[in-house]
Amino acid sequence: MRPDTPAENVDHTAEAARLERTVDLYPEDAEALLLRAAAHRELSGDRPAATTLYDRLLASDAALDQPFLVRALKASNLWEYGHEAEARAIITGIRSAAPRDPAPWVIVAESLEAHDELEQAHETYTQAVRLLLTGVSQPPRAAHPLLFGRHRVRRMLGAAHDEWDALADTVHTLPVTLDELHDPKRVWSLGSENPAELEAEILRLRAEVGAFREALSRPFPVAVLHWPAAELTELTEAYPALNVEYPSYDAHLASIEADLRELAASGTGNLGIVTGTVPSFEAFAASELTSPDDPALLPQYATTLAARGRATAWPPERTAACWCGSGRTYGDCHGAA
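^ thats the sequence. predicted structure below, dont judge the formating
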């Protein structure tokens, strides 16, 4: 599937089947590929098939990168087709294990919220933000949904603002405030006969839909290809024709950051970086029946790596390690400009 394919035009059953076949070609990427395949199975309405894929991952001999995320997704899916008791047991297990990754917390809390378990959802969100954000001056982007979800549930429960709600307000960037977005009375305004109220609600809904559409319309990032220094040396020595593309390692790093900033400035979202290796690139060239010294293969190779779940989101947090591997923070390295 093309990275710019609108979500509403996707044949989810066919895409899931394609991803499952791809696992046979790239077993090292099984976790990322099967998680995406399971998502397509859920979207197609075949939730038992999605559970089968989650179970396949959990039963695998290979160590998972995100075992708690797989369990959380399985719990959320099970609850949607009537297996509430099993879903609750999995959620309890995840909360007891207290993973340090925000993603499984978001999934289980939103699942509780979706089934009107507001008190339990609030407890889960609060447990997560206290565990992951206590003493953190700038919450990472991955933890923002925890703050927003907790704010939303507290508005529905009629709770007064606290320090975590204030933090949620500071990291929120949409033009519509969180208090407006999460106002339980908003639904009543849709039945209003006042044109001004209806117009204001339409603007709020457009802001929300725009954010969701941007997130859903591209299943994997628009990725720029990065070669580590040793790999780039090996690549250009083996295929001198690529020296035109990569005159030096420093120029290569500078062009990555410049290209990504240009894409961001043009309005392109969901950007990422994929890291190449010479053996992987040679195998890709062979699969395309093309010589590796063809520069036209490079963007295709980058897209293929991104489709296999190999992309790292860009830009990193300013306090996170820079994508180039220098050992410095992004804010002190390529994010300094």
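The beta strands are 222-226, 271-275, 312-314.
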